[in-house]
Automatic annotation (TrEMBL):
This is Retrotransposon Copia-like N-terminal domain-containing protein.
Length: 259
């Protein structure tokens, strides 16, 4: 029984009042996910098994019914007495959630508009962490969906790509040209890898510029005074500058040359 106390605390501290529907739903999702009951909010009830149904079919139906009963208990425990009375005869947890969503739509409309505004205006700044940006975007998607908005996966991908800074232009090009599609966690990992590549290029650009500047300075230094300078000194400095430039090119390849 003690293992349930943290869940009890979550529900007790996040009772549904109306305007807090999004926060309440988030807390409820945590509890139901922890207990492996959330699937009943997303899936329809399986058909009642017939007398000749196989055992796996019966087990799947019983699993859904048990999870639905438990999910309903958690939902009811986090409602006021008035709401509990209203939904005590509603058989499916999924239907209770939908009714509550409709009931508090007046309160959620301004919240939905604000979440939409944030989503469309959120942009990742250069130099910030792409993982933090993705978590922000995913949180806004969740908020809008909790409030009843229907967001398809392609829309989410497009919004994320549009919110990235210019340093991710190559990633966006590859993503679009290859017609890629990924779950949001997978996309986060892909962007994190791309972020590492972008960061690796930056020191290469610096080294390349320094090597190129060294070569130009060597040429300028001995351009007009080549006759006065010793031949060995000219060759040594020019060779050193060229070596530095070639090392930069070798280390950072085409990206260092084109940056």
């Amino acid at each position: 029984m003690s293992s349930f106390s943290p869940l009890h605390i979550i529900l007790k501290e996040n009772q549904l009042t109306g305007p807090n529907f999004v926060d309440w739903k988030r807390s409820l999702d945590i509890v139901l996910t922890t207990q492996d009951y959330k699937f009943v909010l997303l899936e329809d009830c399986p058909a009642v098994p017939g007398p000749d149904a196989l055992e796996p079919v019966r087990e799947e139906y019983q699993r859904w019914m048990k999870a639905n009963d438990m999910a309903k208990c958690y939902i009811m425990a986090s409602l006021s007495n008035v709401l509990q009375q209203q939904f005590e005869n509603t058989p499916k947890a999924k239907d209770i959630i939908e009714e509550l969503r409709l009931m508090f739509s007046v309160h959620s409309r301004p919240a939905k508009q604000e979440a939409t505004r944030k989503l469309m205006n959120t942009r990742m700044a250069e130099g910030t962490e792409v993982r933090d940006h993705m978590l922000t975007m995913m949180g806004l998607f969740y908020e809008l969906e909790t409030l009843g908005s229907k967001l398809d996966h392609e829309f989410k991908e497009d919004v994320i790509l549009a919110s990235l800074p210019p340093s991710f232009s190559q990633f966006k090009l590859n993503f679009n040209m290859n017609k890629m599609t990924s779950s949001l966690p997978e996309m986060m990992n892909q962007l994190t890898v791309a972020e590492g590549i972008v960061r690796e290029r930056r020191p290469g650009n610096v080294h390349m510029a320094e090597a190129y500047t060294s070569l130009m300075n060597a040429r300028n230094a001995f351009g007009h005074d080549a006759l006065r300078a010793g031949k060995g000194q000219i060759e040594f400095v020019m060779c050193e500058a060229r070596t530095s430039l070639m090392n930069a090119r070798s280390a950072f390849g085409h990206h260092a040359r084109s940056a």
